[in-house]
Specification:
Structural class: alpha/beta
Mean pLDDT: 85
Largest sheet: 8 strands, mixed
GO molecular function, one term: oxidoreductase activity
Shape: globular
Family: Belongs to the short-chain dehydrogenases/reductases (SDR) family.
Helix content: 40-55%
Number of helices: 11
Oligomer: single chain
Low-confidence stretches: 3-10, 37-48, 247-254
Number of domains: 1
Radius of gyration: 19 Å
CATH class: Alpha Beta
Order of helices and strands: EHHEHEHEHEHHEHHHEEH
Strand order of the largest sheet: 3-2-1-4-5-6-7-8
InterPro entries: NAD(P)-bd_dom_sf, SDR_fam
Pfam families: adh_short (PF00106)
Protein name: Putative oxidoreductase
């Protein structure tokens, strides 16, 4: 783990969102997971969303932003909050920000979401795959995927939008240094309730943590493979830092006590939300990324190129994950189409 990821240590600031983000007029950004922590109660608990802060800074510099998320209600509340904050702090009026529906737990919905977004916009300059969750009680999604494996949704959504991305467009995959805990993907465990690791947990902590680490490991593998196969794009992964963001807000009763302690500690020693969002904003906006053709890299706070784990740089592992993902997506889409056909025939 790079020492700069810890808020309690001095960290090199290689990028300043107040000075270094260029004018983004005409640029179109898609940010997944940009709706969390707009309530005063959440803010009092020290929570805030990286996606929300990222969106705020992009809008502040005149970008067009699509907030891609599941809850329209939360998104509209977030947009209202963003507009109020932009007007109060920077006199920015009428920022160009839209809600776009995206359910990352539903593969067919991700396909539909990408198609719909492709109709809405002529081009996309950057996708920030920011949405994530941790410490969820184990369950399988409707597609039969372990719920913390936040990979297939982004894989499906991003790969179907590549045609909308011109040369030099960017993809930022938000991972975590937790990826270093994992060194391989347990493909059986992703799809089998029999492989539920929770029974191995100490008070329900170890299982969720290992599943989260595997998810973040998959994020880095995905970013590396996407960069390697698409040299015309600028694709990078990052660790935002240790921040109390509420990413574990949906944890079960097993881990509620540990989450409370964890978030309390981070509220004291962790990085701020603004600092936490800075590395992904650097990758999404900095002119140096385009000038130096930076792609296939991993960054830690703040905007510091580091090295992901050796296992996450394994080309064969990345190829295996990509092949598995393509197969799983195709199977799921086919199953969905068959179900729809049966329903139509019944009617």
């Amino acid at each position: 783990m790079h020492i700069s990821s810890l808020g309690i240590y001095p960290h090199t600031r290689n990028f300043d969102v107040d000075k270094d983000i260029p004018d983004l007029t005409g640029k179109v950004y898609v940010v997944t997971g940009g709706t969390y922590a707009v309530s005063s109660a959440a803010k009092r608990q020290g929570y805030g969303g990286l996606g929300l802060e990222t969106t705020f800074q992009l809008l502040r510099h005149n970008a067009t932003v699509y907030i891609a998320g599941k809850s329209k209600k939360s998104a509209l509340t977030a947009i209202s909050s963003l507009k109020e904050r932009l007007a109060d702090k920077y006199s920015v009026q009428n920022p160009t920000v839209y809600f776009h529906h995206l359910d990352l737990e539903n593969i067919q919905a991700c396909v539909d979401s990408a198609r719909d977004l492709g109709i809405k916009t002529a081009h996309i300059d950057c996708i920030i795959a920011n949405a994530g969750i941790s410490f969820l009680p184990f369950y399988l999604t409707r597609d039969g995927i372990e719920n913390c494996m936040a990979h297939l949704g982004h894989f499906t959504f991003v790969t179907r939008l590549l045609a909308k991305m011109n040369d030099g467009a960017r993809v930022v995959v938000v991972s975590s240094e937790a990826h270093e805990i994992a060194n391989k993907i347990n493909y059986y465990g992703i799809t089998s309730p029999l492989a539920n690791p929770e029974w191995l947990s100490i008070f329900g902590v170890i299982g969720p943590a290992s599943r989260y680490a595997q998810s973040k490991f998959a994020n880095v593998l995905f970013a590396n493979k996407l960069a390697r196969d698409n040299p015309r794009l600028l694709v990078n992964a990052c660790h935002p830092g240790l921040i109390s963001t509420g990413i574990n807000r949906s944890a079960g009763a097993y881990t509620s006590f540990f989450n409370s302690v964890y978030n309390w500690v981070l509220s004291l020693i962790g990085m701020s939300i603004k600092d936490g969002a800075t590395t992904q904003l650097f990758l999404a906006t900095a002119t140096d990324i385009e000038r130096n053709k930076v792609t296939g890299k991993y960054f830690s706070p703040i905007a510091l190129e580091t090295e992901s784990s050796k296992a996450s740089r394994d080309i064969n592992a990345a190829d295996e994950l990509w092949e598995w993902s393509e197969t799983k997506v195709k199977e799921t889409i086919m199953d969905s189409q068959i179900k729809d056909l049966k329903i139509r025939n019944m009617n």
